[in-house]
Amino acid sequence: MSVTIALAGNPNSGKTTLFNSLTGLNQFVGNWPGVTVEKKEGALKDNKDVIVMDLPGIYSLSPYSLEEVVARNYLLDERPDAILNIVDGTNIERNLYLTTQLLELGIPVVVAVNMIDLVDKKGDVLDVEKLSRRLGCDVVRISALKGTGVREAAEKALEATRRTAAPSPAFAFSNTTERTLSSVAGLMKPKPGQEIPKGQKRFFAVKLFEGDEKIVERVVVSDAAALAAVREKAEREFDDDAESIITNERYTCIAAIVEECFRKKSASRVSASDKIDRVITNKWLAFPLFALVMFLVYYVSVTTVGAWSTDWANDGLFGGGWRLFGIGTADYEAAVEAFDPTSGAAEPDSAGFGLWIPGIPSLADNGLQWAGVSGWLRSLIVDGIVGGLGAVLGFVPQMFVLFIFLAILEDCGYMARIAFIMDRIFRKFGLSGKSFIPILIGTGCGVPGLMASRAIENDRDRKMTLITTTFIPCGAKLPVIALISGAIFGGEWWVAPSAYFAGIAAIISSGVLLKKTWLFSGESAPFVMELPAYHLPAATGVLRSAVQRSWAFVKKAGTIILLSVVAVWFLSSFGFEDGKLVQVEDLGDGILAHVGRSVAWVFAPLGFEDWKAAVATITGLVAKENVVGTFGILYGFAEVAEDGAEIWGSLAASFTPIAAYSLLIFNLLCAPCFAAIGAIRREMNNWKWTLFAVSYQTFFAYFAALCVYQYGMLLTTGIFSEGTAATLALTVVFLFLLFRPRKDAFRSVKTKLEAV
Amino acid sequence: MLTLKDVQCEQTARVVKLEGNGAVKRRIMDMGLTKGTEVYVRKSAPLGDPLELNIRGYELSLRKEDAGMVLVELLDK
Q1: For residues A104 and A108, what is the distance between their CA atoms, to the nearest angstrom?
Q2: Is B34–A247 a contact, with Cβ atoms under 8 angstroms apart?
Q3: Which mean pLDDT values do the consecutive 10-residue runs of chain A (756 residues) have?
Q4: Which fold is adopted by the domain B4-75?
Q5: Are both A182 and A212 inside the same structural domain?
Q6: A251, B32: Cβ pair inside 8 Å?
Q7: pTM surpassing 0.90?
Q8: Which chain B residues in 18-47 lie under 8 Å from chain A, judged by CB atoms?
Q9: What is the distance between the alpha carbons of residues A209 and A230, in angstroms, rounded to a whole number?
């Protein structure tokens, strides 16, 4: 028979590291049903019958955060056989606060005091036996990072699952509070046909006293007036509300326990971490350092290592071919150098040097030709499927490098400092400092960026972040920028930065504008965040996180990109002739071209009525980098480089610079790729909000591109057309929405006054 | 009365009472900022807000707006 152990603990307590070392590679990552919180479970390494359930990192079991509600519903409804509660030994007081709540659930608890090596190193002494007696549960010393005590913790938890007697906490609140809680317990009855599980009476009494609405539903109160009277009496006595009375009692208890069991060696307030922090969040150094870190991340992950690996994947593995370990490359280059085209000798063949390994497309093509596969099927496999796979996988190396950096930043504690130093700026437009993290990750890929919005507790802030995150150019939009920049603007330096600037401007103005609508009015979210101590990130944890995120990209985006490439291949190479579906010679006769022609008029005010642009924009909705590939296919190239260098000439001939820039802006800001839309849908957990987000983004993009083209034309030609007039009118509306006073300003002041 | 917002950097204060109600107050208290707790105001963020506090041996950041809900008395240290 299998047993379940729930792993619970504060964020930053080393819970993920412990989970990884308990389960190894036997992990399953999913979502809690109906909500957006990540759910991880795995089998214990040396005992596959034991399931370890990783609960979200939480500070409390309050009803105010999604993670906390998910965790406590799981603990109450699924009733795991034991709880392994990981506690950060270097921050024991606040960590034990959750422990006091877990101990009331009537489920056996084993407390694992983590980072015990750091505690010992500091010279502090923790009396584990005493702590165990005072809490009323087993306590073990572990270091999740070094792997010490992990096996013992698992064994103790397993042992605890076999206990039959319902556990109960060994500590008690003040006499007054205990009396109050017993009166509350006396008024409590189980719902008809149910019973309150043994050992959970205290939990329900506390929650009933606190007036926790989500828990109160689970029991029946025999005399509501009496309950109110009990609560009122206590609130008068303590001059505080019921929730605060309990919180105070818990911390008072913990302070007494810690006093008894924990000996601090020195009272020094300045740790190594504090010294680091003095520099990192220093008034003058914080922003230069932040810029430096961001520059390093992008220099390595996008410009150097990322570019090399992506080039290899695109031009080698999914291109013509590559040399194993680069052997023979120097000889080939020397031969090319020495080659004289006028000599009449054969040009040196790249494949003739070193250990040449042909690319997958040519391998597949040769193989299929040898097997005698018909032309259209070969085209489907080589151009459609293999090309599509290349589009997905070619992007992965760069993404993997970026994810390694992000995992390091998260793990070492710098992410929290980013939120700390950026909060002042971000909350001005309705976002929290934590919104910076999704937007930052969004520069790599919108999908994990959107998923990172989970770190934001407040629902409104999270929604706002989900709507605006994909405005920032993601990695897949870079080829589009490179295409327009190279083809039309001769690779001028300002094109790429201006794309980022447009993205940032879109985020800021949307934040300000949306915050003033009825959808987002009201007081902003509390920003109460732990700044964890700095520490060196663990290599295995970082790698695992990068692998999981990259895999999520391949899984979530891969099928969509692949299908779209196949669909584009089909729609553009087939058309109707005399009412029959046939393979067409000219792409202009294909189905996609007809679709493009029928919607092209929509884009006329933006300056690109060309059906090719309309088609590219449509396929861009499937995946942004497809814009380049689609232009390539439409201009008659089976495959183009990432920046579409082959079609620069054709593009420059069909677009004016203003129209091209308008096309770029529209493609950068409009609805993101379907994978990202899927991520928005998952995070919003609501189709209506998803539709709102996507339509808002598309309208915003249309407006921005309209401004670029119409004002651009006005400035360059001096002609004031109907289009200019309409744009001007829209601009006035936009500015009004942006700068009107907040409607709820008075109301929120009033509520604040009432609260005082 | 003095609130946590008014405490200068590098000063220590003791929490007397928490104003307000609901989610924000509960969250602040859950993080250990309860009646009688000693709070050391380590610094403010480079742009002046939020604050970095040291309570119960760890670092917590709190916006000045929310810090205004925490009534305190100064401690001479």
Answers
A1: 10
A2: yes
A3: 91 91 82 70 90 93 83 92 95 95 93 94 92 94 93 94 81 93 90 80 92 85 90 92 94 95 76 87 90 79 69 74 74 78 71 77 84 81 76 72 82 88 83 77 77 69 90 87 87 86 93 84 70 88 83 68 74 80 75 86 89 84 79 75 82 90 94 80 79 94 96 92 92 91 49 36
A4: SH3 type barrels. (2.30.30)
A5: yes
A6: yes
A7: no
A8: 18-32, 34-35, 37, 40, 42-43, 45-47
A9: 8
